Amino acid sequence: MSYINIENETDLRSYLNKFKEKEFHIIALDIEAECNCHAYGEKLCLTQVFDGTNDVIIDPFNIGSKVLKLLFENPNILKIMYDAGSDLSLLKNSAGIEIKSILDLRPAVELLNHEKKDLHSVIAFELGIVLGKKRRYQQYNWTKRPVFDQAIDYALNDVRYLPALKDSILAKLHTRKLMEIFLLKNLQIQNKDYTRDPEDKYKKISGYSRLQDDKKKNFREVFDIRDKYAKQCNLPPHNVIQKTDIIRIIKDAKYIDQIRYSKRLGTDLVRDMLREIRKAAESS
């Protein structure tokens, strides 16, 4: 497998300069990220690019957001993506990066009424290319280094076929006179404000809305305590305490004694955390 591997700011600047010198203006783009699955928080872990000639892997861990913005926020590079909303949200809220000049093919697939709308199914339907369903890489830990070659190949498959997919889909949109509504939907995706409401982390939890106001206050305190210790130990918050358990603790503080905690927290940390949680849950 041959691809350009970019691991630092100098190499990314050099690649982008060569891209500009060749007067290229379009790439296929996708990212892989950590989203509280294997570690604490959200984090950009990998960027995949296909520029029409080269497969490109960008490892962002040693590249600052200022330099990453030279790619993501460059308005002169059209970025073909598929179902870009979650990527736009993650980059905006975790790194302050906004992707500019997007052509998201997902709205086109919806307008064309494809039965299966996941990317691999659409590639198979439109291009006749069947990609293996490597499900283990859907939950892959992209924070680990080195990244396995098979995982990189899996990631690159999400961009390699986007230019050809674009041509096939846009031709159908034109034939069916759906181009204008597709362009409108792309503008709506681009112009949406992806900044998250800080309240969402509480409001979206099942059972929170049914709590009385004083209990909601207790819930937030316990939730934030859990978050503090998860960050301290670099653990996904659900590996510290499940959200459903927080609801149960707020309804009955004695439930704290029934919870089993990850050994990665350590006895002293668990003791300190429980003391804080018990105080928050029982306060009025």
Short description:
This protein has 284 residues and is α/β, with parallel strands linked by helices.
Secondary structure topology:
Layout: E1 4-6, H1 9-21, E2 26-35, E3 42-50, E4 55-58, H2 65-72, E5 78-81, H3 85-95, E6 102-104, H4 106-111, H5 119-127, H6 149-160, H7 162-175, H8 179-191, H9 200-203, H10 213-233, H11 243-251, H12 267-282
Parallel strand pairs: 1-4, 2-5, 5-6
Antiparallel strand pairs: 2-3, 3-4
Describe the 3D structure:
- The mean pLDDT is 94.
- This protein has two domains: 188 residues, Nucleotidyltransferase, domain 5; 83 residues, Orthogonal Bundle (DNA polymerase, domain 1), CATH 1.10.150.
- By secondary structure, the chain is an alpha/beta fold.
- A hairpin with a 4-residue loop joins strand 3 and strand 4.
- Helices cover 48% and strands 12% of the residues.
- The longest helix has 21 residues.
- A six-stranded mixed β-sheet has the order 1-4-3-2-5-6, with helices on both faces.
